[in-house]
């Protein structure tokens, strides 16, 4: 499996090939400001003591406090967290929000923990990192396998330890713990605004056939938003398998089935396929919304979509980018496509600092304006540089970060 941090560095070098920027910037931006490894002891329900490995990477704060989610996954390691932190710095610059980039994680399969163990682990993560996070220093949020409930434990622990109860240290909190309206759906919603802004320019039809890889916060809500707008969901997957139907899946029934049985398997009215096969399903838009490294050199030539719309972080490797480009498949890059999540997180931070609470309508009006403006800006940049949308997005982000670094 390719190293995601190496992929991120390779993307930086590829962007430099289409728009030059100072070599000193590349040197500095290729290394995180700080990389923290922690061990979190948790008393398990059976009385044993277990140590979990955790991480926080603070990549760059030239434009504002480090910002980025916390991932709980059995495969999470420092290379993954470093890549995600670098992408966060670029993403915040793409959205032009006053935040830098960071990311956190714990190597754990949270499905194997009881609620009590999960709470102890989450409070433990804060206890070990309390000195390096804070509303003006570093503001974590949810990512894969973490959610508002976990953020509520974390913000409570931080408040108890520091006396700062503004809530601005963590975003993605439940609404009654200072969370923002719209944060739960912001990643997919922001993605949908980007999609609408670019749909015609990318040569997509009015009604698109859409495949979604991943059925969590990003993927499940994306499937709902695209379907509600009249598009047809022709395939969807979770970590264990996938469903396909060229006539269109009954999304609501699929989700009800997953909620009732815990998996997509056994759903009547669709063909069961593998996650690998999902990538090859003929469609207009493929939305990877699971994990990184899903579209690679060894499978990119089988992608059946006209456009890959990256709601996940890092789903396409640089090698796959070249193959997709040669096949005429356009890629809307993660640092643009999924930047709605961190944008509304930043709105949440701003509301907490000002002690305000915005309506969902206000949140989405502001989000739409940002997503449309930045999507069109990146499209125009790609035309001006005769390059793909990823390199164009990197160029814009790098210009903004380099300026803030005085380079
Ligand atoms: P989540 O934990 O809510 O859901 C992840 C989903 O992916 C689950 O349905 C899981 O079953 C599925 N999955 C895992 N491995 C898979 C595989 N190999 N094939 C298919 N499906 C698989 O996580 P999420 O918050 O939806 O995050 C998904 C992606 O979106 C990640 O890359 C994350 O970094 C990115 N993202 C999320 C947000 C956010 O606000 N949640 C913001 C920006 C980017």
Automatic annotation (TrEMBL):
<feature type="binding site">
    <location>
        <position position="67"/>
    </location>
    <ligand>
        <name>substrate</name>
    </ligand>
</feature>
<dbReference type="InterPro" id="IPR033524">
    <property type="entry name" value="Glu/Leu/Phe/Val_DH_AS"/>
</dbReference>
<feature type="binding site">
    <location>
        <position position="187"/>
    </location>
    <ligand>
        <name>NAD(+)</name>
    </ligand>
</feature>
<protein>
    <recommendedName>
        <fullName>Glutamate dehydrogenase</fullName>
    </recommendedName>
</protein>
<comment type="similarity">
    <text>Belongs to the Glu/Leu/Phe/Val dehydrogenases family.</text>
</comment>
<dbReference type="GO" id="GO:0004352">
    <property type="term" value="F:glutamate dehydrogenase (NAD+) activity"/>
</dbReference>
<feature type="binding site">
    <location>
        <position position="91"/>
    </location>
    <ligand>
        <name>substrate</name>
    </ligand>
</feature>
<keyword id="KW-0560">Oxidoreductase</keyword>
<dbReference type="Pfam" id="PF00208">
    <property type="entry name" value="ELFV_dehydrog"/>
</dbReference>
<dbReference type="InterPro" id="IPR036291">
    <property type="entry name" value="NAD(P)-bd_dom_sf"/>
</dbReference>
<keyword id="KW-0547">Nucleotide-binding</keyword>
<feature type="site" description="Important for catalysis">
    <location>
        <position position="143"/>
    </location>
</feature>
<feature type="domain" description="Glutamate/phenylalanine/leucine/valine/L-tryptophan dehydrogenase C-terminal">
    <location>
        <begin position="180"/>
        <end position="406"/>
    </location>
</feature>
<keyword id="KW-0520">NAD</keyword>
<dbReference type="InterPro" id="IPR006096">
    <property type="entry name" value="Glu/Leu/Phe/Val/Trp_DH_C"/>
</dbReference>
<dbReference type="GO" id="GO:0006538">
    <property type="term" value="P:L-glutamate catabolic process"/>
</dbReference>
<feature type="binding site">
    <location>
        <position position="217"/>
    </location>
    <ligand>
        <name>NAD(+)</name>
    </ligand>
</feature>
<dbReference type="InterPro" id="IPR033922">
    <property type="entry name" value="NAD_bind_Glu_DH"/>
</dbReference>
<dbReference type="GO" id="GO:0000166">
    <property type="term" value="F:nucleotide binding"/>
</dbReference>
<feature type="active site" description="Proton donor">
    <location>
        <position position="103"/>
    </location>
</feature>
<dbReference type="InterPro" id="IPR006097">
    <property type="entry name" value="Glu/Leu/Phe/Val/Trp_DH_dimer"/>
</dbReference>
<dbReference type="InterPro" id="IPR046346">
    <property type="entry name" value="Aminoacid_DH-like_N_sf"/>
</dbReference>
<feature type="binding site">
    <location>
        <position position="345"/>
    </location>
    <ligand>
        <name>substrate</name>
    </ligand>
</feature>
<dbReference type="InterPro" id="IPR014362">
    <property type="entry name" value="Glu_DH"/>
</dbReference>
<dbReference type="InterPro" id="IPR006095">
    <property type="entry name" value="Glu/Leu/Phe/Val/Trp_DH"/>
</dbReference>
<dbReference type="Pfam" id="PF02812">
    <property type="entry name" value="ELFV_dehydrog_N"/>
</dbReference>
């Amino acid at each position: 499996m390719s190293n995601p941090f190496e992929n991120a560095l390779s993307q930086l070098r590829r962007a430099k090939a289409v728009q030059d920027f100072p070599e000193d910037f590349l040197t500095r931006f290729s290394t995180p400001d700080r990389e923290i490894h922690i061990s979190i002891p948790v008393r398990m329900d059976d009385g044993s003591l277990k140590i979990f490995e955790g991480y926080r990477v603070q990549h760059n704060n030239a434009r504002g406090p480090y910002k980025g989610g916390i991932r709980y996954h059995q495969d999470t390691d420092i290379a993954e967290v470093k890549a995600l932190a670098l992408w966060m710095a670029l993403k915040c610059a793409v959205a032009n929000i006053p935040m830098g980039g960071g990311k956190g994680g714990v190597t754990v399969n949270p499905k194997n923990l009881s609620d009590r163990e999960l709470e102890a682990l989450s409070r433990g993560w804060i206890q070990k990192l309390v000195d390096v996070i804070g509303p003006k220093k570093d503001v974590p949020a949810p990512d894969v396998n973490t959610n508002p409930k976990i953020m509520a434990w974390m913000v409570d622990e931080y408040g108890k330890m520091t006396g700062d109860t503004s809530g601005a240290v963590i975003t993605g909190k439940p609404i009654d713990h200072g969370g923002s309206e719209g944060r739960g759906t912001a990643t997919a919603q922001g993605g949908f605004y980007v999609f609408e802004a670019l749909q015609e320019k990318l040569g997509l039809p009015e009604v698109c056939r859409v495949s979604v890889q991943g059925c969590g916060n990003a993927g499940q809500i994306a499937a709902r938003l695209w379907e509600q707008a009249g598009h047809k969901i022709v395939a969807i997957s979770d970590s264990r398998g996938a469903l396909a139907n060229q006539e269109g899946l009954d999304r609501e029934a699929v989700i009800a089935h997953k909620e009732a049985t815990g998996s997509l398997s056994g759903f009547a009215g669709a063909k069961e396929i593998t996650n690998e096969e999902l990538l090859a399903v003929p469609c207009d838009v493929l939305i990877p919304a699971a994990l990184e490294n899903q579209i690679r050199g060894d499978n990119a030539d089988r992608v059946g979509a006209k456009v890959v719309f990256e709601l996940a972080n890092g789903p396409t490797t640089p090698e796959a980018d070249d193959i997709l480009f040669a096949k005429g498949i356009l890629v809307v890059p993660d640092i643009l496509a999924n930047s709605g999540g961190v944008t509304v997180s930043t709105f949440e931070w701003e509301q907490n600092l000002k002690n305000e609470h915005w309506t969902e309508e206000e949140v989405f009006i502001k989000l739409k304006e940002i997503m449309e403006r930045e999507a069109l800006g990146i499209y125009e940049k790609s035309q001006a540089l005769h390059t793909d949308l990823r390199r164009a997005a990197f160029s814009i982000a790098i210009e903004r970060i380099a300026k803030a670094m005085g380079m």
